[in-house]
Model the fold of this input.
Amino acid sequence: MKSLFRSVLLVLFLSVIGIANSQETLTLEKIFNEGLLNAKWMAPVRWLPDGDSYLILERREGSPLRDMVRVDAKTNKREVLVAGEKFIPEGSEKPLRLSGYTWSKDNSKLLLFTNTRRVWRYNTRGDYWVLDVKSGNLQQLGKDLPESSLMFAKFSPDAGRVAYVSKNNIYVETLADRKIKQLTFDGCEYIVNGTFDWVYEEEFDCRDGFRWSPDGLTIAFWQSDTRGTGVFDIINNVDSIYPSIIPIPYPKVGTTLSSVKVGVISADGGESRWISIPGDPRDNYLPRMEFIPESNDLLVQQFNRLQNTNTIWTVSAESLKTSVLFVETDKAWVDVYDDTEWIDKNKAFTWTSERDGWRRLYRVDRNGKQFIPITGANFDLISVLRIDEISGYVYYLASPENPTEKYLYRSRINGKGFPERITPDNVHGHNSYNISPNGKWAIHTFHNSTTPPVYTLVSLPSHKLIREFENNSDVAKEFSALGISPRQFFKVNIGDVTLDGWMVKPPHFNPAGKYPVIFHVYGEPAGSTVQNSWDGGDLWHQYLARQGYIVMSVDNRGVNLPRGREWRKCIYGKVGILAPGDQAAAVQEIIKAYPFVDAERIGVWGWSGGGSMTLNAMFRYPDLYQTGIAVAFVADQQLYDAIYQERYMGLPSTNPEGFKEGSPINHAGNLKGNLLLIHGTGDDNVHYQNCEMLVNELVKQNKLFQMLAYPMRSHGIYEREGTTLHLYRSMEKYWKDNLPAGSR
Done:
């Protein structure tokens, strides 16, 4: 017994040493500057049409060249399809640095995207080259146009031409003679052809704004007219001795929207012909438009301004005749989905809807009359991954029992039978799949809160492991060596509903002590914070735990979880009202349930919508929260963009009380605790104006606070040297100065 006791003491002693050593290694510099736990990722895989082989870009050993390699899924036999030398332009010694590529329909040519530039959120502007695989001829497109100005280049169906956008106009280039035909000429700072303004990109995920017709004779495209829309000016004070102004058309809540319409034009040039869809184009949205396969008909989705009605139109690209196919409505809002795929020789298509209270995939006949549910009842579809008509199945992600995780399911396209879980029952966490066209194979990515991403090839539907590409074992060992306390998932019953949460405790946790708790919040319909996912090891929160804090997060009602329509849409008209109430109720129940929580040291922090939630927590429940850090927040909902805020709140004219009560600026006079405001002055999403208006109100109310402005940083506050480390060091100091760490 004594030897056993000594062994236990030795283990405890070594554990303490290990904790001390890991505390020394887990620094903010290592996390944000040195890439601690920097997991390897698998290069993107493109499945070939046969479904039994895929393409990867593979760096040649000891060389800067990357070969395009065809891999047989079953045998792992590899064949260089395009040698890296073919990506070297004439007169150059270096290969093109590829950011993306597209095959022509006949697989004879490659369209290569390189030299990219950022537009709003993403690098969607750059240079395009076409490689003739057989001849090896490599030619740059749009050589007479400005460098890195081309967007969304696409082959014509016969691969003889390429269309693209440059400087808000659409061009078509013939590959044989390299002649460039400009199709639109009115593109300018306020007329946008073939792409979108800021708000369509941000809120509808719209970027690529034109489509080739299946016969290659016509191009359909969006045009946005931003005249009359409010322009928000961002002031750059740091890059010259005089400030420069960056104007961004940005429709705020209740203000004039851009006028958006869809036109068709001959690929040979000519006059644009505009589709006449009823309704004021400045009071409606056209977020989706596609050609119906093997036809000259378009399927166009039109949302009203409140986004509670989606009218689906069919339009003849020849006659421009329009007709209503069906109408999707919801008392709250209708979401935009990209799961529409034509099936049964184009006699039907798939459609996602919440019409029965759950997000389900339906089979809809071409006349829009018959809706047959495909995915199962009483649980939510998360996303569609592959429709395999040959086998008769739809593969999709769902998680009927646990909204913090994701698993692969399949259902019959005809709606018969029961949903079948494909992911093995002993796999717990987040699962994603890149499924082959024939439904026989999938690149499977698995991770959870303690497991970095593992990439494998599996066969379907058996989910048999064929081979492992990357398991990030070195990162897993590094993670384990840090002695990190894993997330502990829990549930909290607040009376009306049970919420999911997680907590991270200090490594030297003493259950008899009382610890400060920092709550990480988001709480709006765009996301969720309580997920059993890797998240890079969540090292920021782990670092805070090392300093002597318990970190927790709870998902309130209204966040985007697969818990049914009522869960998600009960927040309608009550953004900033319902969620802070749920969060506060959860905190109160947690204080009761866990004696190690110090009710006198409760902190809260969040970013974007989480920043707004932090403010509402501090202002609406001032006796509950002692310290808060709000980053890149919306202070007044009327300052945010029309599409997002009106979708969830309606209009200020019809919901004035909701906008008032949900906006933290109107409760600023209640502040009692310690508050730090952080914002980037170059934030084109949630404008720095929010911070200045809130500061103005806090000063008016004689409330003390601190603030930190990052010049010309955007919503992510990461641009320019030293920014990220400085931001997190500042937050760490604020916590330590205002919410004392450690057990007592």
